[in-house]
Each structure stands twice: as structure tokens, then as C-alpha cells.
From TrEMBL:
The lineage of its organism: Bacteria, Pseudomonadati, Pseudomonadota, Alphaproteobacteria, Acetobacterales. It comes from Acetobacter lambici. PANTHER family: 2',3'-CYCLIC-NUCLEOTIDE 2'-PHOSPHODIESTERASE (PTHR36303:SF1). Transmembrane segments: none annotated. Signal peptide: none annotated. CDD domains: MPP_DR1281. InterPro entries: Metallo-depent_PP-like (IPR029052), YmdB-like (IPR005235). This is TIGR00282 family metallophosphoesterase.
Length: 271
């Protein structure tokens, strides 16, 4: 299965970047499954139902979220009716929406996509390690699904590495989101799981993690509340990771980062 995961879409610029590249990427890379994190897609904060629908109609198969899941309150009443939008698995029981979804491809193959949130330097939710292990009692690669993609939305690199190693051999891909900064450590772990600490964002990198520089810098300098942060609107770099998995085992065969447009060094998977 050929899977593309794109990191946090930030504001209009991130959305336009993704929407303008996606159909060409689907064709060029022969993608079977596209997963995007869209927790910052609506003006940097949250995801509106209308923007979610646009993404899902434009070649995105599953949308993941994170700590900004509920910034757009209209998503709260929408998420139960749209299983392709998932929020972190480790929210308390009875939180609207689901933390995972099994999607069926046009050819009948199935993939489980999961969103979990780390607890270090973040709002501490339930234990993501325990929640993930519990979920995996119900799903096995090569038995119930052909591939499993896990978005670990977390601040601390240590927590993400630990998550990757805990899941090594049991899922296809563990990829981090939330820092909006792509890491250079993408690799296949010892037991066959593809891993990257952070996919990076889809947004303008002439910014402070996607938001306009001046007010974001001023917050650090003045230590006073200031202007509301706004998404920076220069050209986006769309950042993500592509993985090809073995349908029989679900494990990763190849992976490569993708960075297109905007300011970062460009790279495109060549398989
Ligand atoms: Fe984010
Ligand atoms: Fe986040």
C-alpha cells in the first residue's frame, strides 16, 4: 500500500498548498491512502466542518487532529457524523468522535488510522501508550487490516521515539505531528515499522511555526499578551512522509520524506 501522510496544515496558505498539489501527487506517486493532520487548518486554530469537507472531497482519505481539535466548536457537533475525521484516542471516554478509523480502499484493502496525543509538555490526557495497546488488541496487520498508520501528536521527541519503539513491528508507520518542524530521522525501525519524529507542517516557514513572525516574537520578548496570532501567508511548503507497505505483513518496505513548495529544501519520494 502506498501511503502519504502530511503534517499539520496551517491556515489558508497550508490548505491551498495541499489542495494545489494533491491530485497530481496522488497520480504521480500512485497513492492508495492520504492522511493529513488538519488541527490548524482553520486560520491556525482548529478545523471547520466546511474545510474538513473540502479536504475530504479533494483526495484526503482521513484527517487527524491534536490539541487544537476543539478550537472550532462547530466541529464538536460534526465529528460524530464524519468518521474520516479522528481526534486523539486518549481523550476521556464519552468525548465526541473517535480516535481511530478503519478505511476501505476502492480495491477492498483496509487501513487503520490512529491519532494519539503525547502528555509531556501538553494537556495531559489518558495514557497514550495504554490506549494504543488496548486498541491493538482489536486490530492486527495481515489479519484484520493491511496497514496501520499512527499520528502521535506530541511535543517531546523522547515520547515520540518511545511510542515508535513500543509499536515497532505492530504498525506500518508511526509519524509525529505538532512541532511543525520536519525531522531528518525518518527510517524503518528494527522490526519493520516506518518512523519519523515529526512530519513538519504544511504552511509558510517564514514564520514562527506557521504564525506571522512579529507578534509571535513579541510574545517571547515582552512576556505580555499581545496581538492575536495570525497564520503567515507566504507560499507553503507541504511536508510529509511517504511509505510503501507490504500488504501481507503491513510492514514498511520503503519510506521517503516529501517537501514541496515554499522555503524548505525540496524533496520528493523517488519510488
Ligand atoms: Fe499543529
Ligand atoms: Fe498541536
Amino acid at each position: 500500500m502506498r501511503i502519504l501522510f502530511l503534517g499539520d496544515i496551517v491556515g489558508r496558505t497550508g490548505r491551498d498548498g495541499v489542495l494545489s498539489h494533491l491530485s497530481a501527487l496522488r497520480a504521480q506517486l500512485g497513492l492508495d491512502l492520504v492522511v493529513v493532520n488538519a488541527e490548524n487548518a482553520s486560520h491556525g486554530f482548529g478545523l471547520s466542518p466546511a474545510i474538513a469537507t473540502t479536504l475530504l472531497q479533494s483526495g484526503v482519505d482521513v484527517i487527524t487532529l491534536g490539541n487544537h481539535a476543539w478550537d472550532r466548536r462547530d466541529l464538536i457537533g460534526h465529528i460524530d457524523g464524519e468518521p474520516r475525521i479522528i481526534r486523539p484516542l486518549n481523550y476521556p471516554p464519552a468525548t465526541p468522535g473517535q480516535g481511530s478509523v478503519v478505511v476501505a480502499l476502492a480495491d477492498g484493502r483496509k487501513a487503520l488510522v490512529v491519532n494519539v496525543m503525547g502528555r509531556l509538555f501538553m494537556d495531559p490526557l489518558d495514557d497514550p501508550f495504554r490506549c494504543m495497546n488496548e486498541l491493538l488488541t482489536k486490530h492486527r496487520m495481515g489479519v484484520t487490516v493491511h496497514a496501520i498508520v499512527v499520528d502521535i501528536h506530541a511535543e517531546a521527541t523522547s515520547e515520540k521515539w518511545a511510542f515508535g519503539h513500543m509499536l515497532d513491528g505492530r504498525v506500518s508507520l508511526v509519524v509525529g505531528t505538532h512541532t511543525h518542524t520536519p525531522t531528518a530521522d525518518h527510517r524503518i525501525l528494527a522490526a519493520g515499522t516506518a518512523f519519523q519524529t515529526d512530519a513538519g507542517m504544511c504552511g509558510d516557514y517564514n514564520s514562527v511555526i506557521g504564525m506571522t513572525k512579529e507578534p509571535a516574537v513579541a510574545r517571547f520578548v515582552r512576556k505580555m499578551p499581545g496581538e492575536r496570532l495570525q497564520p503567515s501567508e507566504g507560499e507553503a511548503t507541504i511536508c510529509g512522509i511517504m511509505v510503501e507497505t507490504d500488504d501481507a505483513t503491513g510492514l514498511a518496505r520503503r519510506l521517503a520524506p516529501l517537501r514541496q513548495g515554499g522555503l524548505l529544501a525540496q524533496t520528493m519520494p523517488d519510488f
